[in-house]
Amino acid sequence: MPKTLLLRHADRLVTMDGARREIPDGGLYAEGNRIVAVGPTADLPATADEVIEARGQIVIPGLVNTHHHMYQSLTRVVPAAQDGELFTWLTSLYPLWARLTPAMIGVSTKVAMAELLLSGCTTTSDHLYIYPNGCRLDHSIEAAGEIGMRFHACRGAMSVGASKGGLPPDSVVEAEGAILADARRLIETYHDPEPLAMQRVAVAPCSPFTVSRDLMREAAALARAYGVSLHTHLAENASDIAYSREKFGMTPAEYVEDLGWTGRDVWHAHCVQLDEAGIDLFARTGTGVAHCPCSNMRLGSGIAPVRRMRDRGVPVALGVDGSASNDGGHMLGEVRQALLLARVGFGPAAMTARDALEIATIGGARVLNRDDIGSLEAGKAADFAAFSLSGVGFAGALHDPVAALVFCAPASAALTVVDGRVVVRDGQLATIDLPVTIERHNRLAAQLAAG
Ligand SMILES: [Zn+2]
């Protein structure tokens, strides 16, 4: 018999189900990694192998982060990259990233995932696109297994170096044949297509300005042969658009359409500068967007037209983006920034608190092409987070705890459960020794910065 878990007496349980039920004195009952019942505490079984009392807390579906570069937590606030826009920011950081090692990938992945888990996030993708010194995506996947996070590992890649008109230095690009062979190996080794999978792999050339047209096409063919998703960066800022027009004679949307990079199995990060025709294309094809508000503000890239995208039917999710352009990985904080940035761009009606939470939960599930996460319903993964409502940050806001969670200062999770397993308990990470991991991370970060 699988282990049973009962969470009960939550002040409010946000389901994100079809009716968007928000249940007072709510709870849920899970068997193993699957939810079997959600509702008022009085309607749930009276006991279980593990019983969690959630009085004074709000419970939400685990947040879904759809864009990240976890290795970048080693290079936060690097002085030379603090104040540049996308291309200058990248070119300042490439030489540091060229010195990454496998140990750095492992430890930075754990630090980034710890930050996400402690902010209520249970599923994340990571886009690793630089593989110097024997680094492999396997190192990220191992770290995810150790910490216990649901993981979509994206096999990124760069193949067009500066000598061929690309942005990165030649020293950090790979041969296209080797990229595709490694992506195939990773899919065959790690990708789990089954419902409630903890481990999926996506094929994810870094961006149009770092790989060739051929690689984009072949990556799509490979992904589709295996039924895995495709991911890249797109239409991030004005220079990105200028590069696309100059090199390909097309807008980013025309370029991805030409390459077959549209559909429910594709999601693009940013899309800040996606034009009207692009929004229509994405809506028509179900192509997803990972909206990254902090990164877009940090690099001054602009304001993604999220409301317009959603009104037209584009699947929109949320991403914290890499730790060098955020420079945080607080997922609930990102939800708040999405709300605020939408309002800066398009007025206070552009996004409600519940819209923002929807983007970060079922929006994320849809963009990752999953129907087994993102809401608390029978049959779905037992992935959820609880936040205490008794702290000073929520004082005076308890007439609407759901909105409080988004509008008020970003809180840390008291409890995070992934796949039926408690990963954060009493606000502390329960699966790894975090202080030791942070110390090791900081030693390696200093080593990287020292050159
Ligand atoms: Zn990114």
Number of strands: 17
Number of separate helices: 14
Radius of gyration, rounded? Answer: 21 Å
CATH topology of the largest domain: TIM Barrel
In percent, how helical is the residue content?
Answer: 25-40%
Give the low-pLDDT segments.
none
* Share of β-strand residues: 15-25%
Shape: globular
Mean pLDDT: 97
Name the ligand types. zinc ion
Mind summarizing the main beta sheet? 9 strands, mixed
Integer tally of domains: 2
- Structural class comes to alpha/beta
CATH class descriptor name of the largest domain: Alpha Beta
GO molecular function: deaminase activity; hydrolase activity, acting on carbon-nitrogen (but not peptide) bonds, in cyclic amidines; metal ion binding
InterPro entries: Amidohydro-rel (IPR006680), Metal-dep_hydrolase_composite (IPR011059), Metal_Hydrolase (IPR032466), MTA/SAH_deaminase (IPR050287)
Protein name: 8-oxoguanine deaminase
Family: Belongs to the metallo-dependent hydrolases superfamily. ATZ/TRZ family.
Describe the structure.
This protein has helices at 86-97, 102-117, 137-147, 176-190, 213-226, 238-248, 252-259, 276-285, 293-298, 306-312, 331-346, 353-367, 401-407, 434-450; strands spanning 4-14, 22-31, 34-40, 50-53, 57-61, 63-65, 121-128, 150-157, 199-205, 230-234, 266-270, 288-291, 316-318, 384-388, 415-418, 421-425, 428-429. With 451 residues, the protein is α/β, with parallel strands linked by helices. It folds into two domains: 4-61 and 373-429, Urease, subunit C, domain 1, CATH 2.30.40.10; 63-368, Alpha-Beta Barrel (TIM Barrel), CATH 3.20.20. The strands form three sheets. Strands 1, 2, 3, 4, 5, 14, 15, 16 and 17 form a nine-stranded mixed β-sheet that branches. α2 packs parallel to α3 and α12 packs across α13. The chain binds zinc ion. Zinc ion (ZN) is lined by residues 67, 69, 233, 269, 321-322. Belongs to the metallo-dependent hydrolases superfamily. ATZ/TRZ family.
